[in-house]
Each structure stands twice: as C-alpha cells, then as structure tokens.
Design a protein that fits this description.
Layout (H helix, E strand, L loop, with lengths): L1 H35 L2 H13 L4 H4 L2 H17 L11 H14 L7 H24 L3 H13 L5 H13 L3 H12 L6 H14 L2 H14 L4 H14 L2 H14 L4 H13 L3 H14 L4 H17 L4 H17 L4 H14 L2 H15 L2
Helix pairs in contact: 1-2, 1-4, 2-4, 4-5, 4-6, 5-6, 6-7, 7-8, 8-9, 9-10, 10-11, 11-12, 12-13, 13-14, 14-15, 15-16, 16-17, 16-18, 17-18, 18-19
Length: about 375
C-alpha cells in the first residue's frame, strides 16, 4: 500500500509538471504567432493548449482556459474557412473557456488578453454573419449578431445590424427596441427614424408611425426624406391641417416638386382657403401643364364660384378652360365629364350637354 501511494504521488507530480510544461510551451508558441503571424506557431500553440487541457482540474484552470481561448479565438479568425479539423468549432470552444474566465473574474488580472479574445470572436462571428447575409440567410445572420451582442459589445453599428436583421426576421418587437435605443443615443441618424417608421408600419400602429416621424422631423427639420414621409402619412390619414404646418418647409426644400405643390393646393382647399389653393394648383400647372388633377381642381373651384355668379364671363372662361383641359387629358374620366355636364347645364348649352351626357351614359351603363 505504501509503495502504491508513492507511485500515485509520483504519477500525479509528473502530470502536474507535464501540464505546466504544455502551458509554457503553448504560451511561447502563441507569443511567437502574435509576433510573426506564422500559422505554424498557432498550430503548435493549439497542440500544447489541447495537451494542457486533459483532466477535470485542467479544464477548471484559469491559465489553461486563458491559453485555450486565446488560441482558439485566433484560429476562429485565421482559419475562417475551417480548413483544419476540429471536434467543435473554434468559436464554440473559445466561448466555453471565456464563460469560465468571466465566472472567475479573470479580467482583473488579464484585461488585455480578455479584450483580445472578445475582439477575435466578434470578428470571426461577424465574418459568419456576413457570409449568411450574402447568401440571403437572414435568420442565420441575425443569430450571429446576437452572439456578438452577448459578448458585451455595445457599439451603434452592432445595434444597427441587430435592428435591421430583427426586422427582416419579423422580430418586430426587438427591432423596435434596437431602433429606439439608437434614436435615444448620442448621435442618431435620420435613417433610424425612417426605418423605425417602416418597422412600425409592419408591427405597430399608425400612431406609432406618425410619432416617430414627428420626432425625426423635430431632430432633423431640414431632412427631406423624413419630412416628405411625414407628409405622406398626414395625407393618407387625411390630416390636412397638419400638412399645412409643414408643407411650406417641404416646398422650400423642393420648390419644383409637382406632388408637393398639389398636396399643398389640396390641403388649402380642404381648409377652405381657396386663394391659397389656386396659387398652388397654378404652381403645378406651371411645372406640368398636363396635370389632370390640378386642371380638374381649378375647374371645379371656378365652377363653384360660377354657380354663385353665373353671369361672370371671366369665371366662365376659366371654368371651361380648365375642365376642357382635364377632359382632353383624360377623355373618359367620369369626374371631368360630370363637371362639364354641370357647366353646360348652367350656361344652357344643350348641344354640348347632350354630347357629354351621351358619353357619360356609355361609361356608366353597367
């Protein structure tokens, strides 16, 4: 029994010395790799790191796990296409050792090494995410960037990637969360507000869309994309009073924009400011004489005036000019034909009224 105990002691001592030797040789090989970039040195470091990681005691050692994480996180980057053979992916091996190191608060003694490991892992996982994106595998890319996030990285580029990929994977709740964090950050970008509005359109409410665009406009009052999108939303909601608060700013940014001038005219018409409405409708016709909507709108405004003052020759001339132009642009549009029918009835032109009514009957007969 005494001889057996002595034998066991000698064996255990030998194992300890061997493990320390492997750790030392592995550390030296890894140091050479960091200086030379020679992959053979990294391969040697891997061989010694594995040899030093055999027993349960080895796997609980901070030093052994530190070397293992340094080596395998470097392999994860250097052997990005995985030409070497591994039982587990180097990323998974590194993360397992990193978790033990974090649990044992290794950062206090090895801050540079711990940063090196995390940076390598972030780069390796980002590479995998990039490949997944190139292949259109958004779910795989999303999982990759979530892994980077779990490593403790908090930069805005990572958060933006997560926001976009969460949206592409229909994880709207998290996409909204990431965009909201970006918007509340130190340097928000106009695109964050626009993209969040798009996500709210898919997984939120109309009010959410409106709120984020209004916030974006408040932060970036000169940004055309946010302002124009806000006007689109106001228009779709029929919020013409709200449009009047911002339309002048939009037209100042793009005075030759036909659509904006038409929206301005329509909004002022709804607000019963016909003088302003005609001003903007005429702007449209100055830019695009064959614009159907503005010709019809001016024809109808003048027709309403003519109904109150049928003998006003100037208004008669303007009314028929705009309505005939609208009819010329769209000969079979019912709205212009109905307006012409009302006009010819008012001025008592029976022949023209018959012509218009005949065409209307042909178009409206089911």
């Amino acid at each position: 029994m005494k001889n057996l105990l002595i034998s066991l002691f000698i064996s255990a001592s030998s194992l300890t010395v061997a493990a320390q030797s492997n750790l030392k040789e592995g550390s030296n090989s890894f140091a050479l790799y960091t200086k030379t970039g020679d992959f053979k040195n990294l391969e040697n470091a891997r061989k010694f790191a594995d040899a030093a990681f055999q027993s349960k005691k080895d796997s609980a050692s901070v030093n052994n796990n530190l070397l293992r994480a340094l080596v395998y996180s470097s392999l994860a980057v250097a052997d990005s296409t995985r030409k070497q053979q591994y039982k587990l992916d180097p990323i998974d091996i590194s993360i397992k050792s990193l978790k033990l190191l974090d649990a044992k608060k290794a950062r206090r003694n090895f801050p540079a090494e711990m940063d090196y490991i995390r940076q390598n892992l972030a780069g390796a996982i980002s590479y995998q995410g990039g490949v997944a994106l190139k292949d259109g595998k958004f779910d795989k890319a999303y999982k990759a960037y979530l892994r980077i996030d779990s490593l403790g990285f908090k930069n805005s580029d990572l958060k933006y990637n997560l926001a976009v990929l969460a949206g592409k994977n229909k994880d709207y709740m998290n996409s909204i969360k990431y965009y909201d964090e970006l918007i509340k950050g130190e340097n928000p970008k106009p695109g964050y507000f626009l993209e969040l509005a798009q996500i709210y359109g898919l997984g939120g409410t109309k009010q959410d869309v409106l709120d984020v665009l209004e916030k974006g406009h408040a932060v970036f009052p000169e940004n055309k994309q946010i302002l124009f999108r806000l006007i689109d939303v106001y228009s779709a909601n029929g919020s013409y009073d709200a449009i009047l608060n911002v339309i002048a700013d939009a037209i100042r940014l793009e005075p030759e924009n036909v659509e904006l001038n038409y929206i301005a005219g329509y909004s002022y018409e709804n607000a019963n400011d016909l003088k302003k409405a005609k001003e903007y409708y005429n702007n449209v016709l100055r830019l695009d004489p064959n614009n159907y909507e503005s010709n019809l709108a001016l024809g109808l405004i003048n027709l309403e005036t003519l109904l109150k003052d049928p003998t006003n020759q100037d208004i008669q001339d303007l009314t028929v000019e705009y309505l005939l132009k609208a009819n010329e642009i769209k000969p079979y549009d019912v709205n212009a034909l109905k307006a012409l029918a009302k006009y010819y009835t008012l001025i008592d032109d029976a022949s023209q009224l018959d012509r218009v009514n005949l065409l209307l009957n042909q178009l409206t007969v089911k």
